[in-house]
Amino acid sequence: MACHTVRVYVMRHVKTAMNQQRQYMGWTDAPIIEEVEPLQWLPEHVVSSDLQRCIQTAHGYFPQTSLIIEPRLRELCFGDFEGKTYQDLQHNATYRQWIDDPHKHTPPNGEPFMAFTRRVLTSFVEHVANETVFVVHGGVMRAILAEFAPQQQDFWQYEATHDHYYVLAWDNIEQVKEGRRCKYLSVVPIVAKQHTSNNS
């Protein structure tokens, strides 16, 4: 990797029971269900969503780094779809409209997609600094990548797994503040301190 002045890391929280059941989980404050071991990594800053699944993950991976808790990095609010699965909703016409075009349709009692991406990206830009880790949700990760990855892709084209993180790099902080796409992007497996091989 070339020498870049600003490197930022974006990772998803460890799994919850709702993740295992493939339920929509936005603002439900569910705990993680897997043990988190510290990483061999001491970042300058760690920024987390205010929901406990992200806070628990951040504290587990980075116990020696102070945590900035940021409510604007919450997942999308799924409204009436919260806690439901695709199987529960697949014959719901409103749901079908939403998954076909989330930019135009909003879950009943949920959050408009535009409002979600606006708050996430505003928060990300405000908190960006070199060697900052963002511990967030799958939708938040995709929103950041859709805006800042080197090549433009649709929101849903980005993978948001629980066992890898993304590295984004720019030449300087001004490029981030101006909303410019990063110069470098990679996906890295999360490896706990006591392990010698990749997991995820």
From TrEMBL:
One GO CC term, this protein: cytoplasm
Coiled coil: none
GO molecular function: phosphatase activity
SMART domains: PGAM
One Pfam family hit: His_Phos_1
Gene3D superfamilies: Phosphoglycerate mutase-like
Segments crossing the lipid bilayer: none
Alphabetical list of CDD domains matching this protein: HP_PGM_like
Protein name, entry field: Histidine phosphatase family protein
Organism encoding this protein: Lysinibacillus alkalisoli
